[in-house]
């Protein structure tokens, strides 16, 4: 079975939590000032792209290799809506050779949107 991103409001057993407060959390937030245009807040798409770019940088590649080894084959759980981009999609792609734009996210039954 292909690993996927799950939306949860709390840690889901068997999945690695990648949301706020975890070691895998995205340090960038939608609404933060854009690095290119500080007067304009970043969108969700932009913060996911910035996270992906960070992992391709000189320091980020070190973390990317660690994250890939730790997350390979695992489901990832985040608080983001499955209907919007999430850095966990980037982590899934990194760990499993997937396209992070492929939309492999699933909302768990009984969880909030």
Automatic annotation (TrEMBL):
<feature type="domain" description="DUF4326">
    <location>
        <begin position="7"/>
        <end position="92"/>
    </location>
</feature>
<dbReference type="Pfam" id="PF14216">
    <property type="entry name" value="DUF4326"/>
</dbReference>
<protein>
    <submittedName>
        <fullName>DUF4326 domain-containing protein</fullName>
    </submittedName>
</protein>
<feature type="region of interest" description="Disordered">
    <location>
        <begin position="1"/>
        <end position="40"/>
    </location>
</feature>
<dbReference type="InterPro" id="IPR025475">
    <property type="entry name" value="DUF4326"/>
</dbReference>
